[in-house]
Amino acid sequence: MPKKKQHKKVTVTFDERHLPVIARALEIFMRMRSGQITMALDECYADKQTKMLKDKNYDHFNDNKDIETLIRKVYFKDLGSPNAAWGVGQYGFGGEEAYMIWKTLRQYMAYERNGGYAGSGRDFDTCWGSYSDVPNPVVEGFSTRKFFRVPNNIRTKMYDLFCDKKYQECYDLIDKKWKTLPKGDKYELAINEENSYLGVWVTAPRKKEEGW
C-alpha cells in the first residue's frame, strides 16, 4: 500500500492591503468555475466601469451576457438551463478551496473593519460545513471573540465569586449589573493572560448602536 502523503502547512505573510485583491480574485475564479460568468465579470470590472468609464455609454450588461453565452456553450453544456450553475461542493464546481479561502478572508476583513465586532451581512459569515478534503484556512491571531473587562463597580465581588468557582453567580451578577456588556453568541469568564484582568470573552459581540 502506498504511503499517504503528509501535507505540510505553509505560512505566507501579507500586508492587509493585499487581502481585498486576493478576495476579489478568489471570488472571480470560483464564479467562473461554477458558471456564474456575468457575476464574475461584474466583480472583475466593477471599479473599471464606475471610474474609468464614468459618463460613457457602455452597455456592459449585454456584453457580459454575450461572453457568458459563449463560455457556457463550451464549458457548461451539462448544465442545460442558461441560468443554472454549479453550487459549492457539487460535482464540476472546482472552486471549493477558493470559496473557503474567500470566506475566511472576508470574515477577517469584516471584523477588522468593525473593530472586532460582528455585524449584519454575509461578510461576517464563516464556512458552514466541509466543502473539501482540504481543511479551512486560518488567519493567524484572528478570533471572532472579543475580551471585555469587568467594570469597576462589580469587579471586587465578581473576582471573589470567580475565585470561589461560583460561575453561575458570576453570570447572574453580569445580567443584573453589567448592562453595557454586548450581546453575543457565547460568553466565557476568564482572566486575561496579557494583563491579568478579569473579564468575559464574547463570541461574535454585537454593537448596541447597530441595533443588536
Structural class, by secondary structure, is mainly alpha
Largest sheet: 3 strands, antiparallel
SSE string: HHHHEHHEE
Q: Give the helix level as a range of percent.
A: 40-55%
What is the terminal-to-terminal distance? 56 Å
- Side-by-side strand order of the widest sheet: 1-3-2
Gross morphology is elongated
Radius of gyration: 24 Å
Tell me the number of strands: 3
Note poorly predicted spans.
Answer: none
Verbal overview:
42% of the residues lie in helices and 8% in strands. The chain folds into two domains: 109 residues, no CATH class; 66 residues, no CATH class. By secondary structure, it is mainly alpha-helical. Strand 2 and strand 3 form a beta hairpin.
Short characterization:
The chain is mainly α and 212 residues long. It is built from 6 helices and 3 strands; from the N terminus they run H-H-H-H-E-H-H-E-E.
Which key phrases capture this entry?
mainly alpha, 212 residues, 2 domains, 3 strands, 3-stranded antiparallel beta sheet, 42% helix
List the helices and strands and how they pair.
Elements: H1 19-34, H2 37-52, H3 60-75, H4 96-113, E1 145-149, H5 152-163, H6 167-177, E2 186-191, E3 198-203
Antiparallel strand pairs: 1-3, 2-3
